[in-house]
Amino acid sequence: MDYQLDLNWPEFIEKYWQKRPVLLKRGFTHFIDPLSPDELAGLAMENEVDSRLVSHDSGNWQVRHGPFTDYDHLGDHNWSLLVQAVNHWHAPSAALMQPFRGLPDWRTDDLMVSFSVPGGGVGPHLDQYDVFIIQGAGRRRWRVGDKVPMQQHCPHPDLLQVAPFDAIIDEETEAGDILYIPPGFPHEGFSLESSLNYSVGFRAPSGRELLSSFADYVLANELGGQRYSDPQVATRRDPSQILPAELDGIRQMMLDLVNQPAHFGPWFGEFISQSRHELDIAPPEPPYQPDEVYDLLSQGEPLRRLGGLRVVTLGDAVYVNGESFTSAHPQALHALANKLTLRGEDFAGALDDPSFLAQLAALINSGYWYLDDEA
Description:
By secondary structure, this protein is α+β, with helices and mostly antiparallel strands. It is built from 9 helices and 19 strands.
């Protein structure tokens, strides 16, 4: 399915992105669900898939985590099944991510899909990331409040909610409607009838994540071996005292590690190109030989990217799931990074270079791209 998003990106970014929520009525016209509730329930039975069931009864909230073996115990009201990273496991659903490439790939996270019966929802809450919530089959009522300090509480250890709030958006959504919510705006949705929702979430790493990852990079690459020195150490009346200039020197040592473009860029490329969820990697058996890849692409067979694979460019390098790749054929790497489906002509002659062809075959044999003989 080729989903066409009716959105002027520059105008949207100017007016709404990380500024205020908005309901985009019929953002997708003639919207067709890429999967059924039964297919979603089947995914939630898989060990590798992150899923949960959220239900409530008279103010008592329950959360169960998958994988699930059956759903026979569920009633007709007040529960939701939520499945993360569906774009990793279901190719038709992955197509829903493509219209949002008006925003940078490195900021995109995953597609969460939920199925809710009447009354189903996760309660009033707020997120610390941007999200576009697409209404599929059925109807849902959404309330969104203003960004003000909110008291949070846990009605269940796995569920963080906020206190009741006054709504600045209070609307029913139907198939194809899209609700955009920036970070920090409280919101609550509950189904008026059995319905599907698709949430395109965006990645917003915290300072804690960045520091932890960079520290791991420093250790793995044996950086930061320089030790603190003070050849003109100052005497002081109180030997227990740390002088401001000494604290500045320690801080500068740490900043000097970050302020190395030769390391900071590669670290970030590796960090941000790694998926937070499992990938449906299935390396081909037997592995492809480079000449087989050449023949198949030359014959017009399409090369498709694995759903959920994170590919970003930084300088002359392309980063794929935490690995860095460079080539004497930057146009070919650019095509790999920017096109989800490629043909032989997209590589602009690079396939004639044995070194590039071997590199491409290695990526295919890793399960990151696959040749689609059914196209």
